[in-house]
Amino acid sequence: MNGRSLIALSVTIFAAGCQPPAPEGFARFVPAPEIARQALSTALEGWREGKAAGLIETVSPHVYLIDKRLRDGRKLDSFEILGEFPADNARGFAARLKFAGEGPDEPALARYLVLGIDPLWIYRQEDLEMFLHWMHAMDEPKGDEISKGSP
Hints:
Blueprint: H1 3-17, H2 33-48, E1 55-56, E2 63-66, H3 68-71, E3 76-85, E4 91-99, E5 108-116, E6 120-124, H4 125-132, H5 143-148
Parallel strand pairs: 2-6
Antiparallel strand pairs: 1-2, 3-4, 4-5, 5-6
């Protein structure tokens, strides 16, 4: 074996040993920042265009957005992804949302968590926390429910 071959073999062995370890546990379900940001942008664009909630299969990896305001029929007029924030076991992004019918000075700030492989699940942070704690939004009782003394 000549000197060049020995150097090439040494560099190859050294480079193979310097590979970062593959993520283990839940960390393997945290997408790369650029993939997560693109998925959030795709999901919010679909909402802005009036597409129904659910799985977005026109992109790879597929994307699924969970946001109670989308289910409630709120119309998204515009959005801006402000940047990433630290999150445990997910990729977190803050976004400024402007809904149709609201004044120009009333944008909503939302925090989204992106996780998964395919599909990528995008949860509004509040919705995920409620789900994880087995909670739900409490609706105001209707007048007839109060008078009937419903349980």
